[in-house]
Amino acid sequence: MTTTTLPALRDGTWTVDLAGTTATFTARELGFIRVSGGLTVTGGTATVVGGRPVAATATLDAGSVRTGNARRDRDLAGPRFFRAAEHPQIEVRTTEVTPGEHGWSAAAVFTLAGGGAPLDLRATVTGRGPGRLHLTIAGVLDLGGTPVRPPRWLISHRVAIEVQATLREPR
User: Fold this and answer.
1) Are 89 and 83 in contact (CB under 8 A)?
2) Read out DSSP for 50-98?
3) Residue 150: helix, strand or coil by DSSP?
4) How confident is the model at residue 149 (pLDDT cuts 50, 70, 90)?
């Protein structure tokens, strides 16, 4: 039997503190070069019922991609990949949330470039302050389930995603 050590959460809608939240990704380019980058988180919520999360959403700016290489960033935001001009937001929406020993697991849908793909996420509590909850949220996205179709020899179809999030308690 697993003992849950999760903090009791106040019921209501928790909101993402945008100043205290970062979203990063890592993929392999040409099969062996690790490319990391980030995207701007523009919104997010977690709905808590009965002291535990039951749903969550997050929105990211598809045009804000930054990898440290301006040409690559333009290419990723452009029509071959994220299609940010047509689909300016990347959305993540959970479909099921289950408690674990140090956080939660969630089945989610990751919507990128106008299409959605399943994404399994793990959220780990990393801290708690007055009216705040700090989490690390991680998962691996298979681009094969999205409209983004990079050649496999160029970019791996599996992209690691990590979010360092701060959530504000409902008032």
Assistant:
1) no
2) TTEEEEEEEEEEEEEEE-S-HHHHHHHHSTTTT-TTT--EEEEEEEEEE
3) coil
4) low
